[in-house]
Amino acid sequence: MTASATGPLSGLRVLELADEKGQFCGKLMADLGADVIKIETPGGDATRTVGPFLDDIPGPNRSLSFWHYNTSKRGVTLDLESGEGHGLFRCLASTADIVLETFKPGYLASLDLGYEPLSATNRKLIMCSLTPFGQSGPWRDYLSSDLLHMAAGGQMASSGYDDSDVPNAPPIAPGGGNAWHTGAHYAYVAIMAALVHRTATGEGQYIDASVHDACALSTESAVASYIYRDEVVIRQTGRHHSASPTPRAQYRAKDGKYVNALTGGGRLDPASVRRLAEWFDSHGLAGDLMNERYQDPDVIKANAHHIVEEVIANFIANRTADEVYHEAQERDYPWGAVRAPDELLSDGHLEDREFWTEVAHPELGRTFVYPGSGAIFNRSPWRISRRAPLVGEHNDEIFGEELGLSCEELARLSDSGVI
Amino acid sequence: MALPRALQGIRVVDFTWVRAGPWATRWLGALGAQVIKVEWPEAERGRQSGGNTTPRDVERGLNTSGNFNDTNANKLSITLNVRSPRGMDLIRRLISVSDAVIENFSSRVLTSWGLGYEELRKLRPDIVYVSMSGFGHTGRHHHYKTFGPVAQAVSGLTFLSGLPDKPPAGWGWSYLDDTGGLYGAMGVLTGIYHRNVTGEGQHIDLSQMITGITLNGPAILDHTVNGRPSRREGFPPGNATHWPGAPLLNNYRGPTAAPHNAYRTSPGGYNDWCVIACFSNEEWKRLVPLMGSPDWATATELADLDGRVRHQQALDQGIEAWTSTLDKYELTESCQEAGVRAMPVQSSEDRVEHDPQLRHRDMYLALEHPELGSRKLQNAPFKLAATPAVNHRPSPLIGEHNRQVFEDILGLPHEDLVSGYEDGTFWPVDRARYPYMEEMLK
């Protein structure tokens, strides 16, 4: 692949009117090569007030959350409720391929900027509304947040602690803002399906996507356990929910970090116990596992607690989490260290795949390392092309150079708060 | 009249198994692609794994897993011994008339079969090939093996979930099978779109673990920009945005807020919990009268965010004293009507039976399965106005579509189908056949 190769979505123009719900979907399209124009309210969107911040000092161009979720986009500011702002948006939308919006249901339509008026002059337009609960239904206008979606979607009912680890623990909402990621992934699937359809027919369409629906889908077998067996799962520390308790999966290593080692239940047989014993023995930590009696499956079964809770737990307690992780994987055990996100920077595998991406911030005269992409496309790269836009950074470029407004008009629109 | 399908005319050869890969192709099928699942009963993973989800009154077998039914709806199934010369010839013929190939084997498996990307291209020059392995096909750890929970641990996702000074709570299911599966679908769709525009196919080499890392952006930037590690005092702060007593730092979920927590509701059962969050002083002011304006809540130090964060423990106690007298759905309704952010913690039963919104959105419509009866399947979380995604068939019985695929698509004479069952190409010779196979061979 040549360095000048363009991403798979190059040539597409996306107008993004999105807050925390949709900005990740816009980032995916932008990093994959689409020309994503983020349209913010004059002064900048509220997503710029979410921390952490550069040097812990808040400011519209200092939010690291905003930086991450808005790479590869261009940015303009526009007051859609003003007459001139309305007109400029109509003008942009008349040539756009995709509009991605996360306003309250009905808001854009109330401004006469819904799918019908926009597609009347642009029949190839695809418009995706990604909202908390969709465009209709009894919860349509309910307020939400990442925590609220994790509760209603079932993530919390599946995640938490064994009573032996944390007595009476609440259900735990996994961190990192993953309700928004889940909604954004499905919205991306829907938009791409509409694009594929458009390549065959030339016709765009409207998409009504719901974060709640998306989260409710994303708890693996929990729904099937209920539908087929009337079972409601329980929460367990660091491992799968289950209809009834299962053996633990996490062990504390010598350095205080944890290892996820799926050893419990019926996974131990004479051959795997022998391989474990030889590995542990090379560090003088095999306990009695080298004993020939463990070549009998019945003996293994009868001593499963001893093997797992004493020998394996003791081995891990005497090695660091990274040592256990790599030694296990080299021996074909699918174990993993529970790593903090920042501890991945030194992972050689990621270096080999050129995962980490240097992103220049010319306004600061600095370059920072960003997480790159989850896949390598061998013909059309998936990569960050630029840092997130500053507030209104491309107003001149887009309204001036592309839409042809004069400097005087731009200055007037800026003074009057339209842009 | 039935509406057209977005992926009409797209054929996908699906080698995926277990969960992540099949979750990808399920959605391609719902969107109208013809997904052909390639299986072999002696090397099968997915039809009986993922816990027991076979109904109590049905015998466990290859065709009776509920979880498989939901994960593999909208596909055709063929059985084919690709390790036999005849089987390999047929799969190569099938690939040559298909648009995409997708698999989630370990990194070197398909190449070892002689079906690496360069070979696939010879069969079909514009093929879109999506591989979904744990660590990707390149890099020093490409051979490492994962399950969802291990990929989550290694990617940093697990670490961000839990209470401080406790083991990580992590994710109570294979989140990276759900999400990794979506990336598989996203890869096929992106590749097909690109092919439609440029005429070129490509290999999309996904890593389940690495897709997880990309979901930790703010935590990673807090380190690469500010030098701050996630392994620190009071982190992760459970359901709160800030752990009492710890330095006031962002928790990577969103804005700092208080209240922001889970609270017990009546009658105190295992899943009788709600969550409440106030992102502004105005939202807090709307919550106070709902609780009956108790003295503790009207205290001036709680009027602003700083004070509520500082007095979070007392705040949470006071709120829970109120919520624990209420049903979680009633509480949600009265809070939301007053403009306060609240939701019930919903179990799977709650979602299927009690959630009025999911019902309104038709998220669980039933389809008839020959062994499992009429069962609800999970529907798409988006509505495409012109080309809706729909579950149009339950999961296939193993090898159910051999005749359709080999005779109708590849033009194999019927006698060759019959002889392929006799020589072990379509089913192991020493394994009992299902009645529908005998029916097919008549």
Brief characterization of the structure:
By secondary structure, chain A is of the alpha/beta class. Chain A has 17 helices and 14 strands.
Describe the structure.
The complex is a heterodimer of chains A (419) and B (442). Chain A is α/β, with parallel strands linked by helices and 419 residues long. Helices cover 36% and strands 13% of the residues of chain A. Chain A has two domains: 273 residues, Rossmann fold (3-Layer(aba) Sandwich); 86 residues, no CATH class. Chain A has 17 helices and 14 strands. In chain A, strands 3-2-1-4-5-7 form a six-stranded parallel beta sheet. In chain A, a hairpin with a 4-residue loop joins β12 and β13. In chain A, α1 packs across α8. The longest helix of chain A is centred in the middle third of the chain and has 24 residues. Chain A starts with 12 loop residues before the first strand and ends with a helix. The model of chain A has no long low-confidence stretch (mean pLDDT 96). Chain B is of the alpha/beta class. Helices cover 37% and strands 13% of the residues of chain B. Chain B has a six-stranded parallel beta sheet with strand order 3-2-1-4-5-6. A three-stranded antiparallel beta sheet of chain B has the order 7-8-9. Chain B starts with 10 loop residues before the first strand and ends with a helix.
